[in-house]
Amino acid sequence: MVGSVVEAEQFVSTKPNANGVMAAQILSVPEFDLAAVIAEPVPPLATTDTNLWEEDEEKKIVLGRNIHTSSLEVTEPEPNDDLTGDKDAYMASVLARYRKTLMERTKHHLGYPYNLDFDYGALAQLQHFSINNLGDPFIESNYGVHSRQFEVGVLDWFARLWELEKDEYWGYITNCGTEGNLHGILVGREVLPDGVLYASRETHYSIFKAARMYRMDCVKIDTLVSGEIDCADFKARLLQNKDKPAIVNVNIGTTVKGAVDDLDLVIQTLEECGFSHDRFYIHCDGALFGLMMPFVKRAPKVSFKKPIGSVSVSGHKFVGCPMPCGVQITRIEHINALSRNVEYLASRDATIMGSRNGHAPIFLWYTLNKKGYKGFQKEVQKCLRNAHYLKDRLIEAGISAMLNELSSTVVFERPADEEFVRRWQLACQGNIAHVVVMPNVTIDKLDDFLNELTEHRAAWFQAGKTQPCVESDIGRENCLCPLHK
Known about the structure:
Number of domains: 2
Strand order of the largest sheet: 5-11-10-9-8-6-7
Radius of gyration: 25 Å
Largest sheet: 7 strands, mixed
Strand content: 15-25%
Helix content: 25-40%
Shape: globular
CATH architecture of the largest domain: 3-Layer(aba) Sandwich
Order of helices and strands: EEEEHHHEHEHEHEHEEEHEEHEEHEEHH
CATH class of the largest domain: Alpha Beta
Distance between the termini: 37 Å
Oligomer: single chain
């Protein structure tokens, strides 16, 4: 159980005794709190009967305060540690227990879009190398310990997926999904320097971060109940700024509801408002579903055969890379507006970061080769099937729930107990929470979650809690509160 105190473990150490003879000695590791290993900067639990679905001033995150929720102290080794090995043994014990904590946390992980089902044991042999992909992936720099050959292979795979020829694209493996969005919006800004950025209100926060970083005019567009961009409001906003080019973020799966913006309708709206193709730039944020949607029957296609400027996906989400990373692809004619020569590298650079993780492309290359298109298609079908199972079970239990047609993100009423939310690592917003069904989420795991949820929910209601109304969040047809049941 996370947060419980583990009894002190013992290990054998050798130290010289009073006569200078090496002797075995039993040492104890101090009691170790598993909670001290997991840094979860969450507000303290409410101690009153405050309605958990209402904004609570005491629970707001306060910036500028260095609150140590947990810390593993770094201490200096003893002078004779090379002889005794005490520090190595202690650190080994700490790491062993941390591994147990990770296993427990992985077991109860449902709210964030990470595929935790992977095995990269074959790549352990590479951990001894500092692999750094500096500069342009297509130009070799003076630094020779790189993985560009893997990186370009991965980029070629994604370019084919999104229907862009090898000589027509430029891209790179990013350090995270946010970097892909920052890069996509930056390219749009460089291509259309006076452009206005348009993004729906349910867009990932990184897009609005990009607007602040680049000092761009940003217009937030209303959304439908599904979370999809409202193209009627989009049209009205475009007409208010007809004199300026448009830089548009299109969501291929929104953060909370998993909604997919209608790319074709967005393009049609731009054209109807008089924006020629040289006066708009579209970045597609496909962090999670950008890799899933190509394998969903009847799903609209994200393709560079349409007038889009860039697409980004995360590598640590559906793919299942063990470290944060992503893929960013844009048209090669756009990148010259961004790239600069770097003599120090003997290369050109058009990336956001300088040093880039050279291990990430190898992990992505390994997975793409191992699974292939058919493997991903099977995993997508499994995720969608299990997501429908979860939604149906929630509704059967009388719990308000919604699942968008092209998504594996199941949205439901927010649990009334924040401890339960933390235990299952649920992502919450206002009155709703969600479970993102990834390949590692099995029916058995969903059953465990559902059983716990229904059991706790009965206790919450006995304690005086009432079922929240989520009509405004997921629509009247999906709300099972007493008013709409």
